[in-house]
Amino acid sequence: MLLTAATLISHIADALSFSFGMFWEILWALILGFALSAAVQAVVSKRQMRDLLPDDSPRTLTVAAGLGAASSSCSYAAVALARSLFRRGANFTAAMGFQFASTNLVVELGIILAVMIGWQFTAGEFLGGPIMIVLMALLFRKFLKPTTVDEARTTANGGALGRMEGHAEMDMSVTDTGTIWQRLRSPHGLTATSNYFVMDWAAVWMDIFGGLLIAGALAAWVPNSFWSGLFLQHHGVLSTIWGPLIGPLVAIISFVCSIGNVPLAAVLWNGGISFGGVLAFIFADLIILPILNIYSKYYGRRVAAFLLVTFYTTMAAAGLIVDLIFTAIGLVPTGPRHAKVVEAGVTLNYTTVLNILFLTLAAALIVRYFRKGGGLPMLRMMNTPMSEPNGHEPGGSSHDGQRHART
């Protein structure tokens, strides 16, 4: 019995060691990414977003992608804000495009991918994001009926709550006159940046550490031979096709979203999943089970099922398309796979130096947040809706709620 207990403790210690090792490797990149994202959010106003998303034209979808890239990477906040925009009259397709960009085109995700798995995955993510938005728009134009959008708007206006409702609607951007750099350097700009930095961390810390714990457990307990068999490694074209199909299915049951799924993606890559499979897995943070439940609350079960099918299709297809493109131009990594799935170990190297420097930056932003920013009251408001819009605001008068661009 003692031996069994000791063995169990040893296995848990191994998993925690892998989790901490990965955390230490990416800590500086996490802080840098969140700081850059906070600075961008500090000068981009959410109040103007609704009026910029009136239809599903290429121009509007491009704007949606840009606004999403300038938003929080928290998947729950992205889903809540997309619903809020839709309730206020934004086009449904454009709102979903915003949602895609907010979780796939943000700077912090790109940095973490480059540090943990490789720059090729960052490039693939930023190419695959726009491809997903285009594929989604085409599927919506073909299969999304006006009655379905009406059903979604009726349910959305019912006001069912998901997660991070308050965080999604808080707008602390600096709209004073002056250049972007002048606004960022102003006292209001520095405070707004600290507000967004702390709130984004508060929104996603559970996903980040949950992803690290799951990735650590899988790295310690699941042999690579299992992953190699599951992902049909060394099966050529079949592996290439299978990876993007199985990747989102693994994501759905992982319960981890936002950038918290990157450590698990590193484990899957080392285990043998294809390049496109990794991308499709990361794309699929918008169809994990908790978010599917939120779609059901926001838009109704039938619309949630429609989103699951169309989103899965676009995510798998985008992963495969990027894989084929990168293979054709020789950018898919080859040879031994060495994503940073490492056991705990802190030594005096560039990672430790960068962690110390960026922890100092994080401490400065946190101190400013509690001295000049929102403090504890704002953190308590993150799950509380800021307002309750009615269904008759300007921009929401289209009879089907889904204005298509003229072709």
Provide tags for this entry.
407 residues, mainly alpha, 18 helices, globular
In words, what does this structure look like?
This protein has 407 residues and is mainly alpha-helical. The chain has one domain. Helices cover 69% and strands 0% of the residues. The protein is built from 18 helices and no strands. The chain is globular and about 55 Å long. 50% of the residues are buried.
In a few lines, what is going on in this structure?
By secondary structure, this protein is mostly helical.
Taking all Cα atoms into account, the compactness measure Rg is 21 Å
Coarse shape? globular
Q: Please work out how many helical segments DSSP would assign.
A: 18
Q: List segments where confidence is low: pLDDT < 50 over at least 5 consecutive residues.
A: 388-401
Chain-wise SSE layout:
Elements: H1 2-41, H2 58-69, H3 75-87, H4 92-104, H5 107-116, H6 119-143, H7 146-156, H8 165-169, H9 180-185, H10 187-221, H11 224-230, H12 237-254, H13 262-271, H14 275-283, H15 289-299, H16 301-328, H17 350-372, H18 375-380
